[in-house]
Amino acid sequence: MTTHRDVTALAVALLAAYLGQAAVQLEVPWLVALQADDVYKVASGAVLVVYLALQWTFARHRRELHKLLGALAPAVLYAHASKFAYGYLTWLLAVYLGVIGVGLLHQPVIARRAKTLFTWWFVTHLALAVLLAILVGYHVLIALAYE
User: Fold this and answer.
1) 3-state secondary structure the chain
2) Number of folded domains in the chain?
3) Could you tell me the sign of the dihedral formed by the alpha carbons of 52, 53, 59, 65, in that order?
4) How far apart are the first and last CA of the chain?
5) C-alpha span between 103 and 106 (Å, rounded)
6) Contact, 40 vs 34, CB < 8 A?
7) pTM, whole model, 2 decimals?
8) What tens digit of pLDDT does each residue of 28-81 get?
9) Which domain holds residue 100?
10) Using an 8 Å Cβ cutoff, are 96 and 132 in contact?
């Protein structure tokens, strides 16, 4: 059985790995080649959209599963896009990583037992998640229109 600490450690490790590989511009040649393929782009993008939809579905009634899947967010993103992009995709990435970062603050916020702090945390996490959904929708429209 996984504990909260296990899930948090996994999330932090995957987030650090994603950011670290970007910082040193580490590339996995076979993954970069795969990500250049149009069929793979659409398939991995569809998996990412399904993943995000599941996160929305599990957020209310299956919180432990929401947290576990949230810990895997950097890996799901890495499978779709291992390199940082530019333009609006930079904002999409920043918001995606922001949702993860704010999500990681859940337990420390809960531990403080401060209702106002929790409210601010929740509103921030939810607002970023909504913004992410909007940016993902925009990205899907742009990607499909120009491919």
Assistant:
1) CCCHHHHHHHHHHHHHHHHHHHHCCCCCHHHHHHHCCHHHHHHHHHHHHHHHHHHHHHHHHCHHHHHHHHHCHHHHHHHHCCCCCCCHHHHHHHHHHHHHHHHHCHHHHHHHCCHHHHHHHHHHHHHHHHHHHHHHHHHHHHHHHHC
2) 1
3) negative
4) 43
5) 6
6) yes
7) 0.88
8) 999 999 998 989 999 999 999 999 999 999 988 898 889 999 999 999 999 998
9) 4-146
10) yes
Give the amino acid at 54: L
In one-letter notation, the amino acid at residue 7 is: V
The half-sphere exposure of 21 on its side-chain side, counting CA atoms within 13 A, is 17
Dihedral sign from CA coordinates of 81, 86, 87, 92: positive
